[in-house]
Amino acid sequence: MKKRADFLRAARGIRRVEGAVTLETCPTPEAEALPGRLRIGFTASKKIGNAVARNRAKRRLRAAASQVLPLLGRGGHDYVLVARGTCVARPFPALLSDITTALKAAHKKLDANAGEGHA
RNA sequence: UCAGAUGGCCGGGUGACCGCGGGUCUCGCAAGAGGUUCGAGGAAAGUCCGGGCUCCACGGAAAAACGGUGCCGGAUAACGUCCGGCGGGGGCGACCCCAGGGAUAGCGCCACAGAAAUGACACCGCCUAAGACCCUAAAGGUCCGGCAAGGUUGAAAUGGUGCGGUAAGAGCGCACCGCGUUCCUGGCAACAGGAGCGGCUAGGCAAGCCCCACCGGGAGCAAGACCAAAUAGGGACGGCACGUAGGCUUUUUCGGCCAGCCGUCCGGGUCGGUCGCGUGAGGUGUGGGGUAACCCGCAUCCCAGAGGAAUGGUCACCCCUUCAGCAAUGAAGGACAGAACCCGGCUUAUAGGCCAUCUGACAUU
RNA sequence: CGGAGCGUAGCUCAGCCUGGUAGAGCAUUAGCUUUGGGAGCUAAGGGCCGUUGGUUCGAAUCCAGCCGCUCCGA
């Protein structure tokens, strides 16, 4: 994801804080959606540090997401990973587990919401 | 062995996989794909100095104002930097620290204390020799005076110590030290040493104002150069409208100028783009000069560069640190920090480690 | 990129230029006043002057280096 509007829409969706990351997700809008495709974005604010630290945080998140999301991600959804303060110092396996648990929790909540909607 | 001093260097290593930015080659109409190569630092930081580069101003320049520098010599493109000396201070020593010109150009300040804080002074004191007086046998007392040794204060008191000298004293005289000055010797010089003279007249503060010498024109890569949309506006040429409507020429007539529409061309500027932009006060090796900073010759290499964004991630083994453990081993961690026009310095941050030279103490031979 | 200014008591500021004693208001504490509180009056406590060096006999003050903050110009 590149556009600011996409990030804002995801921020209004489901939020889940876990360890060194914040996960935000929502369904991809109809106009942008392709069957089976999920979209992902990364955010690192100035709280993380200078440009080097921010970029490193985003790179680590990108590396971790490329391992986790092909297994657990759902098509037709947008995901935003926000780096938190300890993201650069966090061990890589811990980062992976953070994203995994955040994803599972978010999906559970998503299913519950969908159930209510249908009922 | 312990404790130090100085100078220099490194700032994790190797391999595998997956990525990112620039250049280049191939394929492709293009989007892009693939190959190949390069891709952070000693401080890239703070922006405290100096320079290159670019534009502006200017007759070479000089002066005023303002700011800066401040022992001497050298290095350098230049510097407030560096090197070597000198002087002062600290340390047993290796060595370290110093904004270190001028206080007889002038102004100003020196709290409290103290008699007195600078055209020095006389509180406690010291002395009665000479002069006058009282009493007189003498001693003594008073006046007129002389003195600054001793005491007290303070950061600092017109130099210090000793001897002579004296009524008591005083550079009053002498010796040594300090200070000033003249000459001689050594040194490029700062300065050092020696001799003579002055007798002390010259307290401290210039990181108070100031004086003297030297330096500085101003701005900064968002500098600056080039290419160049749409729209609005400007100019030139041609055509249309053609004597009606508008403005100016004080008013009216005449006349003149401006103003309308269309087309072509031109130039300026905005959005945007390109260059500036890395062959350089360059790196490495080597030979030479110099005590050194540094300089010269030869060979060789091309070595980041963007839009603010790239220069990384993961794993394995090794290295180091901490913790646990008898050990095997296990766990946790790996400094300060990230180019943006460039270079020379300064300053500040920095886990840990390596090398060289030197000093002191102790022990052994 | 270039320049200017400010850090002093819990808070807001003087004092710095021209160096020797850090002070004011609010706040705090105690007492008086009031039936009690507020207001008022009186008194007290509270500061290594941002930090590290230097100059000086002596530094909040002068000088330099850092740290933090604010403002201005391009």
**Which fold does the CATH topology refer to?**
Ribosomal Protein S5, domain 2
Number of strands: 4
* Global geometry: globular
Radius of gyration: 14 Å
List the secondary-structure elements in sequence, H or E.
Answer: HEEEHEH
| Architecture (CATH level 2) name | 2-Layer Sandwich
Query: Which structural category fits the helices and strands?
Result: alpha+beta
Q: Mind summarizing the main beta sheet?
A: 4 strands, mixed
Protein architecture, described:
The protein has one domain (4-113): 2-Layer Sandwich (Ribosomal Protein S5, domain 2). Helix 2 links the parallel strand 3 and strand 4 (77-83). The protein contains three helices and four strands; from the N terminus they run αβββαβα. The longest helix has 27 residues, at 92-118. With 119 residues, the protein is of the alpha+beta class. The protein has helices at 4-12, 51-72, 92-118, and strands spanning 14-18, 21-27, 39-43, 77-83. It is globular. 49% of the residues lie in helices and 20% in strands. It binds two RNA strands through helix 2.
